Amino acid sequence: MKVTVNGQTLELEKPVNIEELLVLAKAEQPEYVTVQKNDEFIKREDFAITTVADGDNIEFLYFMGGGAAWD
């Protein structure tokens, strides 16, 4: 089955959940990532029970703090 992760096609041999996908897709800092599945945010506590299906579009989002100081 094929899914899109951050714009890249990923072929999976079997259905996986979001937790497993984070490992398979080698997500950076998985403990801090926010995940969207088909444009819907997935709660972290639902990662283990949310299955990825053929054709799904998954986005791993990383929010950064900070900003520029203006004089």
Structure description:
The model has no long low-confidence stretch (mean pLDDT 91). The protein is mainly beta and 71 residues long. The longest helix is centred in the N-terminal third of the chain and has 7 residues, at 18-24. The chain contains one helix and seven strands, in the order E-E-E-H-E-E-E-E. The strands form two sheets. A five-stranded mixed sheet has the order 2-1-7-4-5, with no helix packed on it. Strands 3-6 form a two-stranded antiparallel ribbon. The protein is elongated. It is 10% helix and 34% strand. It has one helix at residues 18-24, and strands spanning 2-5, 8-11, 16-17, 34-37, 40-42, 51-52, 57-61. The protein has one domain (2-61): Ubiquitin-like (UB roll), CATH 3.10.20.30.
Per-chain topology:
Blueprint: E1 2-5, E2 8-11, E3 16-17, H1 18-24, E4 34-37, E5 40-42, E6 51-52, E7 57-61
Parallel strand pairs: 1-7
Antiparallel strand pairs: 1-2, 3-6, 4-5, 4-7
**Global Rg:** 14 Å
Range of strand content: 25-35%
CATH superfamily: Beta-grasp domain
Q: What spatial form do the alpha-carbon principal axes imply?
A: elongated
Please name the CATH topology: Ubiquitin-like (UB roll)
> What is the number of domains?
1
Distance between the termini: 53 Å
What is the CATH C-level name? Answer: Alpha Beta
Describe the structure using short key phrases.
single chain, 71 residues, mainly beta, Ubiquitin-like (UB roll), 1 helix, 7 strands, 34% strand, elongated
TL;DR of this structure?
This protein has one helix spanning 18-24; strands at residues 2-5, 8-11, 16-17, 34-37, 40-42, 51-52, 57-61.
